[in-house]
Design a protein that fits this description.
Layout (H helix, E strand, L loop, with lengths): L1 E4 L10 H9 L2 E4 L7 H7 L5 E2 L1 H6 L3 H22 L17 E5 L8 H9 L5 E3 L4 H9 L3 H4 L2 E4 L3 H4 L7 E4 L4 H13 L8 E6 L7 E6 L13 E5 L6 H18 L1 H4 L3 H25 L5 H27 L5 H15 L1 H4 L7 H16 L14 H14 L7 H17 L5 H21 L4 H22 L9
Parallel strand pairs: 1-4, 1-5, 2-3, 2-4, 6-7
Antiparallel strand pairs: 7-10, 8-9, 8-10
Helix pairs in contact: 4-5, 10-13, 12-13, 17-19, 18-19
């Protein structure tokens, strides 16, 4: 089998050796006809070029497409070899006295061509590869860049957010075949932070063709300057540090503190527990401050939330470092675990399950969680140490998710009214009876508030904080009493 590259543009950039191989092969294939040289090349091949575009249209994933291409090409090569009566049915790479199969790919066979790697690794047939220019060769010329001296990295546009994690640039981004891909690149880099107003890029479109465009664009215009296709690439001279780099720096810092700081060195999972709880409550305070100020949130409130989230994230990283030291788990295990769990819990996003409303999503979540954990009840795993109102509301939500009937709102309101009457008439000797009534009353009130779309724990905390401020103001003014709020 002979694999050839068609170069990055027209037939003038297709190597002569590639044309000769395609013209003399027993059968000639091309991965896709979506290439500017294919029509001219096909006219020079006696039997024409058979493409695999039909596989792209019918397969469920790109992996299926590549696997299908490899199998068909290998089957054809083995069939041709078996039909030859010469001394060696397999032939030998670099020496082609026997009939052979040729397989053509866009650009260079050595740049971003997974099917070529798969064919070379397969082992069932001998593979000879005829090199060809790549689009990157034209890109270096148009950009005036020496990729080695500049330290350029080539990444795939469709997986930019992952492949560019930790990279500062320069980057040459291939496969920018749609506005959606360019938009995803823009958003992924925006999430990394930095001054996007100062960030720029160069769109490389149809290099080597008559309608070639090399356009310097502002970052905001990345996905609205031209109509991209499979011959569009992107040059990014520099990026702000992406999220992956900052997380890696934090991980390195925690390891350094663990090794060099006496306090950090003596911590355990148990000793850190109270710090995790304190940081969680401080983060909740910051969240509530931002939520209360919406939509006009002061910059200092946002900065405070960022700070508290960072403190909470530090606790997660610290526990992961301890786990790694103990040989039990790593930060990668933590990230992988929550990633895979969320994918499994969202079959309406990543599978065939239909969930059109938040309530349907919640119901599916509970069913999947019970099955995944092997639990007999949705109440298993709810921390008993939750604050009482939060515990009540969570149990009520869980019961609804599995179809356990709760009293109607009207019935709940009657319960509250009756409970207030019963509590008022409870005798001083019947303390236990009064506690039972008070518990029923608070539970019913929590349910009513929850069904109105209000989190009872959050609003009671907010009211308590408001009362605290009233007390403090009263103390400062010398007031003898605290007036109820309007």
């Amino acid at each position: 089998m002979v694999v050839v590259g068609l170069g990055p543009a027209g037939i003038d950039l297709v190597p002569e050796a590639a044309l000769q191989a395609l013209a003399t092969a027993q059968r000639s294939f091309v991965r896709t006809v979506r290439h500017p040289a294919v029509e001219s090349v096909a006219a020079m091949v006696p039997g024409g070029l058979a493409s695999f575009d039909r596989l792209y249209d019918g397969a469920g994933s790109i992996d299926e497409v590549y696997a299908g291409i490899v199998e068909e090409v290998i089957d054809a090569a083995r069939s041709v070899a078996a039909s030859w009566a010469g001394p060696s049915a397999a032939g030998r790479a670099g020496d082609r006295p026997a009939p052979f199969v040729a397989y053509a790919v866009p650009g260079s066979p050595f740049v971003a061509e997974r099917t070529v790697l798969m064919l070379r690794d397969d082992g069932r047939v001998a593979v000879e590869v005829i090199p060809a220019p790549s689009f990157v060769d034209l890109a270096w010329d148009r950009l005036g860049v020496d990729p080695v001296a500049a330290g350029v990295r080539l990444v795939d546009g469709s997986s930019f957010a992952v492949e560019a994690a930790g990279e500062r640039g320069p980057l040459l981004v291939a496969q920018c075949h749609s506005r959606q891909v360019l938009s995803d690149i823009k958003l992924a880099a925006d999430d990394a932070g930095g001054d996007t107003a100062q960030r720029s890029a160069v769109l490389l479109h149809h290099l080597g063709l008559a309608d070639e465009q090399v356009l310097a664009v502002a970052w905001a215009d990345l996905d609205r300057t031209l109509e991209p296709d499979h011959l569009t690439a992107l040059w990014i001279p520099r990026l702000a540090a992406p999220v992956g780099r900052e997380l890696a720096r934090l991980d390195e810092l925690v390891h350094t503190l663990r090794a060099q700081c006496p306090w950090d060195a003596e911590q355990t999972h148990g000793s850190l527990a109270r710090h995790l709880l304190e940081e969680t409550y401080e983060t909740l305070d910051a969240i509530e401050a931002v939520a209360a100020a919406e939509p006009e949130v002061a910059p200092e409130a946002v900065e405070h939330l960022v700070e508290e989230l960072g403190d909470l994230l530090f606790q997660v990283y610290f526990h992961a470092v301890l786990g790694a030291e103990e040989g039990r788990f790593t930060l990668a295990d933590v990230a992988r675990g929550v990633h895979d769990k969320l994918v499994a819990r969202h079959p309406h996003v990543f599978g065939d399950t239909v969930a059109a409303t938040p309530d349907e999503v919640a119901a599916n979540w509970e069913v999947l969680k019970k099955k995944e954990k092997g639990r007999s009840s949705v109440t298993e795993g709810i921390p008993a140490a939750l604050p009482a109102l939060a515990l009540a509301a969570k149990l009520q939500r869980k019961s609804e998710s599995v179809g356990v009937a709760l009293p109607t709102l009207s019935e709940r309101r009657r319960e509250i009214s009756d409970g207030l009457d019963r509590l008022g008439s409870a005798g001083g000797e019947d303390v236990a009876g009064g506690e039972d009534v008070a518990g029923e009353l608070l539970f019913a009130l929590a349910d009513v508030v929850r069904r109105l779309g209000i989190d009872p724990e959050t609003v009671l905390r907010a009211r308590a904080q408001a009362f605290r401020r009233q007390v403090e103001a009263g103390e400062a003014g010398g007031a003898v009493g605290v007036q109820p709020s309007a």
